[in-house]
Design goal:
Distance between the termini: 52 Å
Number of strands: 7
CATH topology: Beta-Lactamase
Strand order of the largest sheet: 2-1-4-3
CATH class: Alpha Beta
Length: 245
Amino acid sequence: MHRHAKKGLLAAALTIGSLGGISSAQAQVACPISYDALKAAVTQAAAADSTGFNNDFWAVAVNRSGNVCAVAYSGAAIDSQWLGSRQIAAAKAYTANAFSLSVTAGRGPLSTAQLYGFAQPSPSGGNPLFGLEGGNVLQAEKAYNGDYFQFGTAQDPMLGFRIGGTITFGGGLALYSGNFAVGAVGVSGDTACADHSVAWRIRQILNLRGPETDTITLVNGATPATGGHPNCPNSAGTQGQSTNS
């Protein structure tokens, strides 16, 4: 087994409950969610959520250093959810972790949903984060590598790798132990609003919430000028939302 994969499996075996007894450096590579916990949480969250198209989901956790450390799906089989969403979930997790901070005055979590309005083109000359999606390119050879039948298992081929990618729509949320950022979870498989909703439920189930200021602001007819995130089909029950209709 590749040494990075071994490191990823070791990290996936750790849970946030053990962080109190290890150093800050070790905490960067400790996985905030074990595979079993992520599998149970995404299955429970998907069953509870009825937004979007009521699809199943991929969920990916990264540690604070951005390495994939757990991958799971909610459906009955690997192909019960969109295959293309596996690597999108990984990129969402990477994005939320990369742009979130431990909580201090004026600092804290930033969800992928909150990036949407800032990253859109604008007739007036562009938004401050326009082009952000090109800043951290997805490592495709790592995201697509490996045995298909291991996808979403405790031996997923992405484990231990920093997949990268930058996603600027809903589904990625930072994870916290108290005020300390410890990684992120990315969810994909349905509308962007449903992905955010299920990720929010996962974080609540696992009690890895920070200050919860990283809500999705749903705006009817959202534009770069109005900010927020576009509404999605059947999004009324979206978890972790604030609405500006």
